[in-house]
Amino acid sequence: MGPFFKFQTPIELKAKRNLGEFGDKMPLYEDGIPFYNVIRDYVGGFVDLHYPDDNAVLADVHLRAFYTDLNDHLVNHNLPFLTSKAALSDVLATYIYYVTGYHTHAGTAHTEAATQGVAPSSFYADPSKDQHGAPPDAAAWSFFTYVGTASLTLPITGDTKSTEWKSGFKDKESYFWLDSLPADAPPFEEQEDVEAIGYPEAFEGHADEQALNKAFAQNLINLQGKIIERNIKRHNGDSCYTPAQSRVYNCFDINFVESGVAI
Prior knowledge:
Order of helices and strands: HHHHHHHHHEHHE
Largest sheet: 2 strands, antiparallel
C-alpha cells in the first residue's frame, strides 16, 4: 500500500515531511509534538515500572502475542519489533496520541471538533458565513459525533469539569466567542484551573502507577498553559506566525482532548 500507511511516530512523520521552520510553527506540530512527548514520557515511565531491562521485554510471551495481533491489523504489517523498552514505549505512545489529541484534530471522534475554535473547515472574509467548525457542516457533524462517540470517552486529566467546559477557560476569553460556553458553566473570569485528578481507581493498590498517572495529567495541564499563550499570539497575528498559521488551534488543549475507547 506504499509509505502512506507506514507505521511511524509523530516525530518521524514530521521529519519525513521536511517542512522546515514553517512546519515548526504549524499548530499540528507546534502543539502536537509536545503533546506526544508528554504521552511518551508517561508511557516510558509506566514501562520502566514493569520491565527492568530490554531482555524483560523480549521474554514477555504475552507481549509477543499482543504484537502479533496488533501487527496483523496494520495495512502494511510493519509494526516495529518490540525488542526494547524504547520500541515498546514508542509504539504505545503513538497509538495513544492518535486516539486522543490527533483524533480531535481529525474531527471524527470528538464532539468539540464540530464547535468553533478546533479545526475550522473554511475561511471567509465575511465572518457571518464562518461555521467555526469541522467539515462539512458543523450541525450535521455534531449530530453524528454525539451518536457515535460522545458517551464513549473520558476527560484525559480525570477532571470531568474540563470537558464540560466548566474549568480551564479563564485565560481564553480573548480568542473565544463570548457565548461559546455552556449556559451552566461559570463565566470566563470565574473559571477554575483544570485539576490533575487522573484515574487513581484504575490503579488501585499501585501507588507508583497512581503517582505516574497524576503526573501525566499535571504535565498536560502545564502544556495547556503554553498552548493558550500560543493561541493568544496566533489570534493577535503575532509576527512569529504567517497568516496561514495565525488561527486559534485547540486540538491538543485538554478542554477538547478526551481519552478515546480505542485505547
